[in-house]
Design goal:
single chain; 423 residues; alpha/beta; EreA/ChaN-like  fold; 9-stranded mixed sheet; two-stranded antiparallel sheet; 16 helices; 11 strands; 47% helix; globular; Emycin_Estase
């Protein structure tokens, strides 16, 4: 047998068919008492990935008491979801109204029917629980610079001191001259020394001190602090991006891990955390060619910070199907075909082992899957099916993930509004 055939035979022996959500129990058992569960996705536009992550999250919340879900989304818009599912008295009135806050491209990542179902479930789950036991929903990403500054100013008008409000307005005015374009700010900061960094760092320090000393209305104070953290790290991200793509990636993933740390700290020493992000973020970078490019990611940093024994990273992939994506950044979203995976790729070997949905538990000490480098498909919000070759990340699968969920034929997400175009 050649290497591909040996891997296929091993998958056949170890994989468990995924016929219904009851079959997810094998993952619940494998997670055990771990506090950090990282749930991936090979695309940002596949319905099955969202549905399966929802079912896994529901089981973890109901049976193991997980505290919150943190996602690859903006803090301000995701915090509106948090307020809605926790039923704060001035929260938005409906799931639809909340999801209209996801109005920055790519809107379909969170403004879709699958996430709406998760929100409805979380709201119902939280109904009869005291506020401190309600399960939250938060965004970890770094892109919402101007939205975060607006939220900070809004908060400080109600709760802050004149000195704090002055700090916020100074930072806002500094960034506002760049017409809400991160690239414009990045060029000015990187090449002309026109930086707003000192202003946002002072603001973050001030808000952190206030939250530590005065813990009334702690979620609102936490939100202001996390918005300030976004502003600090977004400044770093945009000023780095124009010179170093790899380092700007690292800034972004370090930010997400720091936001996660602050959220876990806020929820107490027994907090259990579920993270929803792309495979490229939650699968350990050290098991891919990212490492040779000097890149780190959330999966690596969380394992290093909390220990591999307390972290479970689960990758998700598909052999073929349809997906919501766009042909270029900012272009209209469309339903696109995902062609059959390339010969010898991880997805093709999973399909060859069985043309059905499967769950595979992984062990980094495995002599095959813990050492063999295989191409593993990754599709972003921008996708060109005719240029598929560049979408495969060389990966040692059992070192990248603790488990893998294979959807043999997947289907596009259901965005709230979309012209159903098949490309």
């Amino acid at each position: 047998m050649n290497m591909d055939e040996l891997i296929v035979e091993q998958i056949k022996k170890q994989a468990v068919p995924l016929n219904s959500t009851d079959d997810l129990e094998v993952l619940i058992e494998a997670i055990g008492d771990k506090k950090y569960v990282l749930l991936g996705e090979a695309t940002h536009g596949t319905s099955e990935f969202y549905k399966l992550r929802m079912e896994l999250s529901r089981k973890l919340i109901e049976t193991k008491g997980f505290s919150f879900i943190a996602v690859e989304g903006d803090w301000p818009s995701c915090y509106e979801v948090n307020r809605y599912v926790k039923q704060y008295k001035d929260a938005k009135s409906s799931t639809r109204a909340v999801m209209e806050g996801f109005n920055r491209w790519p809107t379909w990542m969170w403004a879709n029917e699958e996430v709406g179902e998760l929100m409805d479930w979380l709201k119902k789950h939280n109904e009869d629980k005291p506020i401190e036991q309600r399960v939250g929903f938060y965004g970890l990403d770094v892109y919402s610079l101007w939205e975060s500054l607006e939220e900070i100013e809004r908060y400080l008008k109600k709760k802050g001191t004149p000195e704090q409000l002055a700090l916020a307005r100074k930072a806002f005015e500094c960034f506002n001259s760049y017409d809400k374009e991160g690239q414009n700010y990045g060029v000015s900061a990187a090449f002309y020394g026109e930086s707003c960094k000192d202003d946002v760092v002072k603001l973050l320090k001030e808000l952190h001190v206030k939250r530590v000393r005065y813990d009334e209305d702690s979620e609102a104070a936490l939100s202001a602090e996390l918005n300030a953290l976004v502003a600090v790290n977004a400044e770093d991200y945009y000023s780095t991006m124009v010179k170093h793509d790899a380092e700007s990636w690292n800034v972004r993933d370090r930010h997400m891990v720091e936001a996660l740390r602050r959220l876990a700290l806020h929820h107490g020493s027994d907090a259990k955390v579920i993270v929803w992000e792309h495979n490229t973020h939650i699968g350990d970078a050290r098991a891919t060619d990212m490492m040779t490019d000097g890149m780190i990611n959330v999966g690596q940093l969380v394992r290093e910070a909390y220990g591999e024994s307390d972290v479970c990273a689960i990758g998700f992939g598909t052999y073929r199907g349809t997906v919501i994506a766009a042909k270029s950044w900012g272009a209209p979203m469309a339903t696109m075909q995902v062609p059959a995976a390339q010969q010898g790729s991880w997805e093709e070997l999973m399909h060859r082992a069985g043309a059905y949905d499967q769950i595979l538990l992984l062990n980094k000490e495995d002599p095959l899957l813990g050492h063999e480098v295989l191409g593993h498909r990754a599709i972003g919000v921008v996708y060109r099916p005719t240029s598929e070759r560049g979408n495969y990340v060389p990966s040692v699968m059992a070192r990248r993930y603790d488990a893998f969920v294979h959807v043999d034929e997947s289907h596009a997400l259901r965005p709230l509004t979309i012209e159903k175009v098949l490309v």
